[in-house]
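step 4 of 6: structure.
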Amino acid sequence: MSRRSTFNRVAPNRVALAALAALSIIAAPAGAEPATRTAPDDGDPAAESSEQYLINAGRVIVRPGEVLENVRILVRGGSIAALGRDVEAPEGIEEISGAVVCAGFIDPWSALGVDAGSLRDQRTEPATRTADAIDVHGQRHLRREALRAGVVAARVQAGGLARVGGVGAVVRLNPDLSAAEALVLPDAVLAMSVGLSRGGGAMDVFDRQGEVDRVRGALDSGLAYRQNEVEYRYDLEEWEKAMAEKEADLEKDFKKAKKDRDKGLAKAEEDDKEFKEKKYKEDKKPRKPSFDSNKAALARAAHGELPLVVQVHRAAELRELLKATAGVDRLRLVLAGATEAESVAETLVERRVSVLVAPSLARSDARDEWAGADLGLAGRLEQAGVEVLLGSGGETPDLTRDLPLLAASAVGHGLEREAAFEALTIGAARSLDVADQLGTVEVGKSADILVLDGAPLLGTTSVQYVFSAGRLVVTPQN
Amino acid sequence: MLILSLALASLAPASKPLAPVSEVFAIRAEQLHLADGTVLENGLVLVDGDTIAAVGSGVSVPAGAALVEHAGHLTTGLIALGEHAGGSGELRDSTRTVLAGGRLAHAFAPGHSQLEALLAEGITSLVLAPSAGSLSAGCTAVVKSAGDTVVSERAQLHIGLSSASLLSNRRPTSYSGALRDLEALLSSAHGDFGAAARGELPVLIEARSRHEVQRAVAFVAEHKLRGAISGAPLAGELAADIAAAGLSVISDPRSPGASQRSIDALLSLAEAGVPFGFKLASPARHANTLRMGVALCVRRGLSPATALRSLTVDAARIAGVDERIGALATGRDADLVLWSGHPTDLTSSVKAVLIDGQLVYGEL
């Protein structure tokens, strides 16, 4: 009886400790290890495609600068199962031939696949997940057109014009996939913006600088949150140790304690009084910091677990933003739009900040911050040594289809052809943390690949076949 | 007035001074594009002053003439139809329904900075056309992007048959009113309308929606006009009717994101043999939009040769100036563009541009 009572007294703490330990694993800073990338469990598990194909390729662009000639590619179970000269053709497999095979294009700044309301939402928060706003069945014809143009995946972003857009996702554009299959990575980047007119006319310079300060403030709050979390873990560990010691002492003195307790119990019964259990003095248990999803998301960005994509255009804000984020060592900053990025090119190279350029032909309807945007920006930044990515701008879903043409125009205005190809494939995949699945033609990667009749991005080249997660979605006949 | 006198001066071929020997030079290119779509390997263009003296594979270069070797493509300059560069307010008279004798050449601003942007895209000629709103704003003008050459100050007679020409506060307010007014003008046999009625002057008929295109086709057939329909994105869906009326089509600029349907409509025009060209509407659009338009079509299956014709010889015919520009041929203006690759491929860039034999962009 008394033993059980003692046990009962300790047991809840044990349970609580176990629960806390579990929590601390979940909330543990993942800075040391790469963030785990798995399909979300809030849907059907991604069903592997049962389709299989053998591609006879004249040339395979494995990655920019690495080309194999006359090889066969086995596509099975959604992935590239084998690649080489001697790949055996399984009995009855459908064979496809093509001049050039390369990775499917990725639009790292797209509006295709998210409903318009989420796209224009200006009240998004750091923890807002675009993955929750993905409309798998919407805009079917635009997705099909994008696939035909060779664009197989895109980073979609809610709150594209908001100061904080939240966590963007990478999705496959194939309209026949379920949400779980379409999602390549539900938490790919954290998006913010600085100095956008957002339909309300141009902002004055002080407001814009204020927005730069907000970015730094947000990152700081993320850093502080993570710091608190880490401190809590250590404190908890110490407390646990103290508790264990105390428990051991208790065990040692158990017999005496039991006798004392029994005596007390009997006396209380005699006196017809209520028995009072002895209070044990224990160290004050550390208080678990309250969970804050926004600060948690900011912490992930501040620690480089999620790239931070900031849309910012003017030279002054670019300069100030780079200054303000200089001390956040693990930050992986990507500047989007970056109309006047040439003015800070040296710093960008030094700090390995990449620039996501949206080549645009719009003029009169371009907002103030885009004034001065031209097709030559990508080429000039690349010349200066900055890593350049190319995107369709994240506002108009129709533009994702034409990203390869816009990239071609950027090449016509000074960007190296190979740099443009890299930007649309492995460059985008790497910066969005999906290079384990997309971006190159390698065994084990997801089969999101193109079969072309000529070199990629060339005007005379047409897309013959497109594979999305191992499914053949575009053929010359459809 | 100054503009007009310049225009007249450049219109008169007799006023060309005899070119001194140093003005004779030749360019040999790996790929030389002729108007009929054929491509000459290592073809040569001989320029004498502001004119092309000879084109071919076997053309000999006269002694003392410079020869430029170009490792790329050589075409005539591109032509932007419906262009506003440098024109701004001059392109619209919002108070008059009909501006009889109107000349868009007055809107030409030689040397305007907006014209320079055209050169970087290989556009050497542009058709200054009015903004929509009038029943007729007079005649469009064809001018060069550099220098002060006016190729034609009376290129096409503008006719507005779209809803944009119908206002509630002045006549005409209806399609039937518009047709009545236009018929009255055509039957008067005076001025530009008289010339159009006699088939001497092509018309540029603005129409947007399907029924407006049908109305325009019927109007042209009834009055035996010739010319082009402008501004109907889906005109190609009536390609057979347009072909039967002998009309051409001036397409709005086709930017990235253009609907597949509107691109397929252009392909239908090509299939039906209807010549078409593209408006640019710079500076509202980047000058690259001209080539983007054909690149969108080429991706859907238009042949690059037809695509190039829409930017050169077909555009010149639509503007009625194919005697002067739009082709690499003997006697035509020496408007040349040296490209790194095929001009309808967007990855190609402009290496050099010559207008009237003068280097105006890049280097040789």
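step 5 of 6: annotate
 - The mean pLDDT of chain B is 91.
 - Residues 2-76+327-362 of chain B form a domain with the Urease, subunit C; domain 1 fold (CATH 2.30.40.10).
step 6 of 6: archive
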